[in-house]
Amino acid sequence: MMAYRGSVRPFVNFNAEHDAEILHKAMKGLGTNEDTILMLLTSRSNDQRQDIKAVYKKTHGKDLVSALKSELGGLFESLIVALMTPPVSYDASQLHKALKGIGTEDEVLIEILASRTGEQITNIVKAYKNDFNGKLEKDIISDTSGHYQRLLVVLLQGSREDGLGEENIDKDAKALFDAGEGKFGTDEEPFITILGTRRVEHLRKVFDAYKKLYGAELEDSIERETTGSFENLLLAVVKCVRSVPEFFAEGLSKSMRRAGTDDSTLMRIMVSRSEIDMLDIRTCFKKKYGASLYTTIQEDTDGDYQKALLYLCGGKD
Hints:
317 residues, mainly alpha, 72% helix
């Protein structure tokens, strides 16, 4: 069993009835006790939040999320609603919003499809069908095009194959080189097939072989040989193969360290990684940017929204 790397863990003496009442009281009467709400919900796992939701409905005859929405506002409300959503449904809703809004939010498609496991992707496809009565693949196809679309569809199948022997490592590295740096123009096919369907352990060895054989990182070749969303997706896949926490540390840094905060990205990463690898993301962030994720969030956000994000971050490093 691998050590638990989330910052939010199941609350030990959990009592759903007790928590439902605390939330009810926090919302009753004049004014809302935001502190109580955020401290309670950020210290419960998502499964526990679902239990609280069920008890709340049974006791009070109304939906907890609707009740919270009517009391809260702004970014804080969005963050609390995200925390109350089961992870798979949350991913599905983020993809739906990215596809159904005005224009396509490619960075959301790229982030989710490059970073989730095959099993997570299979479940996201099911949730998308249940929650939005739609086919994720069909919606992606109607909103994207070209090689970018094809790699997204490959990733959507959520199946990276087993049983590629050692002899295929150099072969794959050579195929990627021959398709890009090794020729005039670029043959995108091998990039789609190799990066979209090989297992992570195999791909890591392929990247090492590529560097050894051709003296360059695969990322540098991708940047030279491809453009646009296809390039961004390839780079995200390569980064996630190397290190998912590092990929998210970079995403968090980008969401905060420029003019204006990209709150939807900040929120999505903090919520969706809080029970998976937030501790590793914090370590990568500190190593890469020399500042702790905690202080960076502190400088970039404010109010109850900030407090809740800091609880999800979980520590100062």
